[in-house]
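Progress report, Aim 2. The chain analyzed during this reporting quarter is listed below.
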Amino acid sequence: MKPSDFSIHVTSFLTHYLAAQRNVSPNTIKAYRDVFTLLLRFCRDVQGIAPERLRLEQIDVSLVEAFLDYLERERKSSPQTRNHRLSALHAFFRYVQAEEPARMHQCQKILAIPLRKHARPTVGYLSKEELAEILAQPDLCTPEGRRDAVLLSVLYDVGARVQELTDLSVGDVRLDSPAQLRLLGKGRKMRAVPLMGKTNSSTITYRKTASLVPNSSTSLSSKTHASNDCRVRESVTSFTNITSKHKTSVRV
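Predicted C-alpha cells for the chain:
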C-alpha cells in the first residue's frame, strides 16, 4: 500500500523537523507523538477512518474541533490539556503549510482555532518556618537522606524545575567560586544560576561522601541501585515522591 501524505508528513515532522531542524527535547517530541496517537485513535474509533487510510485533506477544521470536543467530553481532559493538544497540532500545521503551499488555507483555518481561556490556580507558597522544617526532614545519617537534603536545598535555592534538576549532572555543578549550576531548561536553553554559600557547602560534602566524580555525566540526583551497585538517575516522578515524602512529615 502506498503511504498516505499524512503519514509522510507526521513522520517527517516528528523525526526530522523537530529533532534535527528545531533540536527540541525528547520530552517535547514524545508529547507531540502522544497527540498524534490520540488523533489516530479518534479517527479510527469515532470517525471510522483507519490510520493507514487517513489523508491530510481529511483533517480539516471540523475534524480538529470534533477531536478537541472528544478530548474534553470522553477523556475528561482539562482546558490546559486541551490547549496543549491543540498547540501540538498548531505546530504541525504550521510546518505543513510550508511543505504543502496548496493546503495553506486548510492549515490556516486550523491555526485560527483559539486556545481555550481558563482560570489559573493560585500559586501557593511556604513560610520561612515551613521551609526550614521541610529542609530539616532528611536523615543526614543515611546516603539517601544526605542526597535528599542537597536536592531540596538546590531546588529552593535556584528555583529550578524538577525536570531540570533530574537532568542535572555532576559536571553541570561548579563548586569553586563563583559557585553555580548549569541548567538545561525548556526549549533546550542553557542558563547558569548562582549557588548560595550554605547550599554550596552541603553539595561539596555530599559529592565527597557519595564518591561523585567531578565533571562526570553522573546525575546529581542518582542513587546506588542495590542489585548491581550502579548509580541510577531519578525520574521526575521519583523526585516528586521525594519532595512529597518530606512535605507530608510537616504540617503545611
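Residues 93 and 108 are 8 Å apart (CA to CA). The radius of gyration is 23 Å. These observations will guide the mutagenesis work planned for the next reporting period.
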